[in-house]
Fold this protein.
Amino acid sequence: MVWHGHYYKYLELARTQLLRKCRLDAPDLMGMHYGLLVIESGCRYVSPLRYADRVRVTAWLRDVTHRIYIAYEITNLTRQARAARSHTVLVTTDRDGQMLHRTPEAVLKRLLPDGTRAQTEATDP
């Protein structure tokens, strides 16, 4: 069985890919004088992953106004079953690391440039 802590590693990979797709990777944020900080995470395990199972993690934005809520679904491609549903909540910080009460307009424009919901998938080869 895959240790439950590894699921958060999979979430991190999908979240990074989603934010890169939105042009909000770490260097992008630093250039804008912002940062992102995870303030909450959760995972509901549905069925276990096993060694050598192929996995797909789908990540999408659920809310971005006051904080950035990213939802995930982890699918076991080998067994064709949902393995987990998860979420992480991030807040934007200023250049001094102070949390902001709202997501800045410049960040919002990159998260939702045309007002649509961003989504990405990451698959373990």
